Amino acid sequence: MDGLATVASAPRLIALAGPTASGKSALALRIARARPAEIVSCDSLQVYRGLDVGSAKPSARDRATVPHHLIDVVDPDQDFSAADYGRLGRQAIADIHSRGRVPIVAGGTGLYLRALLRGLFEGPARDEPLRRRLERMADRYGDARVHRILARVDPESAARIEVRDRVRVVRALEVYRATGRPIGAHHRSVAGALQGFEWRVLVLDPGRERLRAAVEERTAAMLAGGLIDETRRLRERYPGARPLDAIGYRQASAVVRGERTVEQAQRDIVALTMRYAKRQRTWFRHQESATWFADASQAEEAALRWLDGA
Questions:
Q1: How is residue 48 annotated by DSSP?
Q2: N or C terminus: fewer CB in 10 A for the chain?
């Protein structure tokens, strides 16, 4: 992507995106150590305090070496939205620039990246009668029935939203009924984009086999590094907290409850993470104009050349 510049001499910003475990954080650190830069995390779990092992937060040493932002922002039982992220992320970017440093956005939460760079469509108010009808339909006939309705009126959103993601399917149908336009069309026309910066999105995607090996290695490291104990503590302190339904914490919770063994949880985490990675790829292909790299060193070279004005 050539980026979005408000003026010819606008400062530059790099966003590193892609599927989970693809090496974005390590790449961001290398770039930040090569240039006077600071990192803005773009991860929907790392914003929560206490979710350290399961969100693969950067180590204390890495954070001491390179300043990181949008990590440990709220407690797990507090609400935090993509709009909140976009607002705080733009503040962080402005602060970084004010110190004469380069902002590097790194993470795989596509909606957060969109909120930061392009702004978000607020949308019409909730249509409770419609929601109740769709919920009853999904309960009776399955989520696939409601997803097929979305596919008829908004095939673009249906291709992007997983069948079982009932919340987003219902919201897309709600927006279509209220406005007569697909939700994606609203997203593309929304105001509130990041102003004053020229930015470029690089997607790091090493391929399925290499990614699976990285996911397996990271999952084993998380379990060895205390994921089960961390989950137990979080469940005791924040019972019912929504972030504990995320991949990794949900399977660790099953171990805490005695419903799964650690080995079974490990297999489940790997399988679900690979499915999530597939959805991330789809999101970035449909939502962001980006340059894709299978090799991290090539992405690093391209990022540094672009930051230097090439």
A1: B
A2: C
